[in-house]
Amino acid sequence: MTAVDRISIILPAFNAADTVAEAIDSLETGSLSDAEVIVVNDGSTDDTADILEDMTSTRPWLRVLHVEHGGIVSALNAGIAASRGTLIARMDADDHSLPGRLARQREFLRNHADVGLVGGRVRFGGHPVRARGYAHYVRWVNSLANPEEIAAMRFVESPFAHPAVMFRRVLIDRYGGYREGAFPEDYELWLRWMDAGVRMASIPDDVLLWSDPPDRLSRTDLRYTIEAFYRMKSGYLARWLQRHTAFWPDVIVWGAGRTTRKRAWHLLEHGAQVATLVDIDPDKIGHSVHGVPVIAPEDLPPPGRCFILPYVGNRSARMQIMQWLEDNGYMLERDYLPVA
User: Fold this and answer.
1) What is the DSSP letter of 336?
2) What is the pLDDT of residue 1?
């Protein structure tokens, strides 16, 4: 095995005494003879530190960094800075890596030199009813595979389960690592790297059992609110539109409801102009909202004469809109891009 193939698994842990040992040992199911696991103990106040130190005595591939509590971004960056591998894999302290994950993802990157990051399918470890929003999200993530569809869908939602990815270390050096801010750190990283031209893919194999604890950051931290997602991704969307459409700064937004307008209006902060709103509600068609006319789908300019952003959160409705656009000659990325 060459140094080019060496993997560093970065696993932040904060007060994870109940789960961290099982998470680490799940990684033993793959070949770790040429890999290392770096656990960053993020200032835990429970027994996490003692458990980790005990584990290092029998696991030569396990390294532990003890840092003051600073949150996941500083822990991730500390782990990456200390790593020796040229491939970085992610893992969380309450998840379970499935057998063969590391080998399959590494093999994919070996065989696809044009791809910088690879994810994989995840099994949802939460309650399918009480956490049905996350369950729907997991199904959506698992439906994405090739770089083209991941790139086209990246403004709908984050296209990867963060703990399930592996990427080339060189991307950190070229485009920067995780950033602190009022946004989800993983989604911002994917959008920034794709904005720089990095191709990303996902293997069609289950690689991780993704747990869903009630105190997960995406439920409790303001950086992971819907508003934070839209505020952050609107900047990258505006950059994409400037580069790829001939109609910038004018865009057409499909959806004239209050929620859609609130989300789409973030684009105005980046120089976009919403020229028209599209809706199927007869009570809205023919009227104006904040001076923007509302039209029916049938009144859209023809393909090649406008750019449409379906800002629809409901997946079924979004798919119906995309199908209508395709049936009427509008092409993905040339004439429209789903945002949701």
Assistant:
1) B
2) 40
Dump pLDDT digits (tens) for 112-171: 999 999 999 999 876 665 667 788 999 999 999 999 999 999 999 999 999 999 999 999
- What is the residue whose two structure tokens read 């409790």? 220
Q: Cα 28 to chain center, whole Å?
A: 26
Residues 6+ apart with CB under 8 A from 18: none
Residues 261 and 192 in one domain: no
Pairing of strands 273-278, 292-295: parallel
Among residues 256, 175, 186, the alpha carbon closest in space to that of 228 is found at: 186
Q: Do 260 and 121 sit in the same domain of this protein?
A: no
Give buried/exposed letters for 55-87 (b at 16+ CB in 10 A, else e).
Answer: beeeeebbbbbeeeeebbbbbbbbbbeebebbb
For 163-185, the pLDDT digits (tens) are 999 999 999 999 999 999 999 99
Q: Which two tokens stand for residue 32?
A: 């770790």
Backbone angles phi, psi at 62, to 5 degrees: -100, 125
For residue 265, the surrounding DSSP H or E stretch is none
d(CA 307, CA 252): 6
Compute the chain's Rg from CA coordinates: 22
Asked if residue 249 is part of any domain, the answer here is yes
- Kind and range of the H or E run holding 308: strand 308-310
Q: Which residues lie closer than 8 Å to 108 by C-beta, 6 or more apart?
A: 115, 118, 201, 203
Question: Residue 29 sits in which domain range?
Answer: 3-224
